[in-house]
Automatic annotation (TrEMBL):
Residues 1-26 are annotated as: Disordered. Residues 16-26 have a biased composition (Basic and acidic residues). This is TetR/AcrR family transcriptional regulator. The keyword Flavoprotein does not apply. It comes from Variovorax guangxiensis. Keywords: DNA-binding.
Amino acid sequence: MTTAPPTPLGKKPTRAKLERTNDPERTTADIIEIATREFAEKGLAGARIDVIAEATRTSKRMIYYYFGSKEALYRAVLEQSYSRIRTIEAQLHLEDLAPEPALRKLVEFTVDYQLANPDFIRLVMNENIHRGEFLAQSKSIQQLNVPAIDAVRAVYERGVAAKVFRAGIDPVDLHMSISALSFFNVSNRHTFSLIFKRDLDSRSALAARRDAIAEMMVRYVRL
């Protein structure tokens, strides 16, 4: 049974706070949602717990009650962000498609997901600044990435067996190449757009770029 966090002496909790206290899953989900934006925009060092508390109508004390520390909250945000993309990937049903369409679907999903979730890109960039320190502390994130590689491997090996993909490609390297192209499409689009005077945010430009990335990856593995 989950106990409610302590209320500061002399203060009565508001009705909204009482409702949140009695629904710890909703409370922690709200905190993680707001914390995701705060950490994505400002990084671990710049993010402020009081800002997160105010936005979620909770208190710093409650956040520490649920997560223990700012670093632990940051780690929970990373875990939730990786869990979300991996959960959706698992629902693509790539095994129902022939190898080449399956690979295209995986690439297009990765491009679309990262474009629609720039906070995920910023979190990954921030974690790289920390040299993966907090990701390394999370066993769940490391376990989450195993199915992602297995999915790429399964599609690729089916393609090799069907003699449509060439042999000798490392699935981890293939996954990295898909991620790199999709990642750059979000992380560098503002600077790239300014330098080369391109409108990269138009619907037609986004669709063309997604198609180009998918085509590059298919041609890379094609026999």
